[in-house]
Amino acid sequence: MNRTQIYLTKTQIEALRQIAQKRNTSISEVIRSLIRERFKKVPVKKEGLLSAARRINKFGIKGPRDLATNLDKYLYGRK
Q1: What span, in angstroms and rounded, lies between the C-alpha atoms of 38 and 31?
Q2: What is the DSSP letter of 62?
Q3: Is the distance from CB of 79 to CB of 70 less than 8 angstroms?
Q4: Is the pLDDT of residue 30 over 80?
Q5: How many of the other CB atoms lie within 10 Å of CB of 32?
Q6: DSSP structural state of residue 77
Q7: What is the reported pTM?
Q8: Stretch 4-30: mean pLDDT
Q9: CA distances from 37 to 17, 31, 58 (A)
């Protein structure tokens, strides 16, 4: 799972709390179940890493030559 942050009104939070309490679960699980229900019929296109790289290469964008060696530096800003 990926952690995310969203802004909700007080009314929305209170409604989620009530639903979570009624279902004896967390607000996060209520949000996930609502999203699953809403988007269950929407197809999700999954793209592999290699096909994404090929698509990006079509734009002529070159990455750093030392990416494999310094991956943490590029991802997290450290060595």
Answers
A1: 11
A2: -
A3: yes
A4: yes
A5: 13
A6: S
A7: 0.52
A8: 96
A9: 18, 10, 36
Q: Which tokens is 70 given? A: 């310094």
- Other residues' Cβ atoms within 10 Å of the Cβ of residue 30: 19
79 in Cβ contact with 73 (< 8 Å) = yes
Neighbours of 7 (CB within 10 A): 5
For residue range 36-57, what is the model confidence (pLDDT) as tens digits?
Answer: 998 887 777 777 888 888 888 8
Q: How many CB atoms lie within 10 A of CB 73?
A: 13
**Looking at this protein, which amino acid is placed at residue 11?**
T
Whether the CA torsion 42, 1, 71, 76 is positive or negative: it is positive
DSSP-assigned states of every residue in 8-61: --HHHHHHHHHHHHHHTS-HHHHHHHHHHHHHTTS------HHHHHHHHHTTT-
Domain ranges of the chain: 10-39
